[in-house]
Write a structure and sequence with these properties.
By secondary structure, this protein is an alpha/beta fold. Helix content is 42%, strand content 18%. It has helices at residues 14-24, 42-51, 57-65, 71-78, 92-104, 107-117, 146-151, 169-177, 188-196, 199-207, 230-241, 258-268, 302-317; strands at residues 6-12, 29-35, 123-126, 134-138, 142-144, 156-161, 180-183, 212-215, 248-252, 284-288, 291-294, 297-300. α1 packs across α13 (302-317) and α5 (92-104) packs across α6. 44% of the residues are buried.
Length: 318
């Protein structure tokens, strides 16, 4: 009889999460992805306000990255209307998810149906069914909404939601059953930490015996994580974990070409995240060359990163 597949829960959002999942789907793992729904930018923000629904943008991106259907269908769902008008800048996947919330009754059910259409292997869950906004408290001012929070991180002393949220029961169940819990690459303060602003998530993580793993960002994010090294990212996560600490970090030690580094610094103000500042008595570091250059941009090598995760789990299971 074959062994039951190891269960992995991934918390995240944004491009970094999509890249990670496109690699994980190639391995025999039972993957559950939990996605924050506090985004308020671009198409997502417009639909959120007009239809009074949770943010659907990151969920749509993740579903497409995990799709196992023909590329024309994926391309269609990724199509963004370019002509001026009410549909301007809306990708088809966002319109479809918004319609499914109406017809299926909730974002969770909408996500499940879309996952079935796209033949997604694994489970994709929104963090909450509620429409929610990220809020940052400064010394004299409150910054409302993810875009405002991202632009003012240096002034913010505390992050929270505009109201206490309840997370989906299935999220708590999946955390309880997990063999490994991963925090994906992505915007630290606006894609990853929003999961840890929900008390029910933090309580579930503190009750779990599964190791906590962080896949470190490759580059800093201007305004959010300027000059942060790997240890700085982990320290922020540990603060919001409120008890648990990151047990393992996967970080890049490959040397990025100087021309690429200079381009990132000159055009976007981003620098390479250095493997420094990690308390090796608390956190095991798995360092490897895990980046690739795609169209001149630095990305996680999805296959290599997923392979390191899978190898870690197999070694732990022996």
């Amino acid at each position: 009889m074959s062994k039951e597949m190891k269960k992995v829960v991934v918390f995240g959002g944004g491009t970094g999460l999509s890249s990670l999942l496109s690699g994980l789907k190639l391995f025999p793992l039972d993957v559950t992805t939990v996605i924050a729904v506090s985004d308020n930018g671009s198409s997502t923000g417009v639909l959120k306000e007009e239809l009074n629904i949770p943010a659907v943008g990151d969920i749509g991106k993740v579903l497409l990255s995990m799709a196992n259907v023909d590329s024309d269908f994926v391309e269609l769902l990724g199509y963004r209307f370019s002509k001026e008008g009410t549909l301007h800048n809306h990708p088809v996947r966002n319109i479809m998810l918004a319609a499914l919330i109406d017809t299926k009754g909730s974002l969770s059910e909408a996500t499940k149906y879309m996952a079935k259409l796209l033949q997604v292997k694994g489970t994709v869950l929104p963090l909450t069914e509620e429409k929610v906004e990220l809020v940052g408290m400064g010394s004299r001012k409150e910054y409302f909404g993810e875009e405002s929070v991202s632009a003012n991180i240096k002034k913010i002393k505390k992050l929270y939601y505009d109201h206490d949220i309840h997370i989906c029961k299935e999220v708590k169940d999946k955390v309880k059953e997990a063999d490994l819990i991963i925090f994906s690459p992505g915007s630290l303060y606006t894609s990853i930490l929003p999961h840890l602003l929900a008390k029910e998530v933090v309580d579930a993580l503190n009750a779990s015996k599964a190791p906590l793993m962080y896949i470190s960002n490759l580059v800093t994010q201007p305004g959010e994580t300027d000059d942060y090294n790997v240890g700085d990212h982990i320290n922020v996560l540990n603060h919001y974990l409120n008890g648990r600490k990151i047990d393992i970090v996967i970080a890049n030690n490959g040397e990025v070409d100087n021309k690429v580094k200079k381009k990132y610094l000159d055009t976007e103000g981003k620098t390479i995240v250095q493997i420094e500042g990690v308390n090796d008595k608390e956190t095991t570091v798995i360092a490897d060359n895990i980046f690739s250059i795609e169209d001149g941009r630095i990305r996680h090598n999805a296959l290599k990163t997923a392979y390191l995760i899978f190898s870690y789990m197999m070694d732990e299971g022996e």
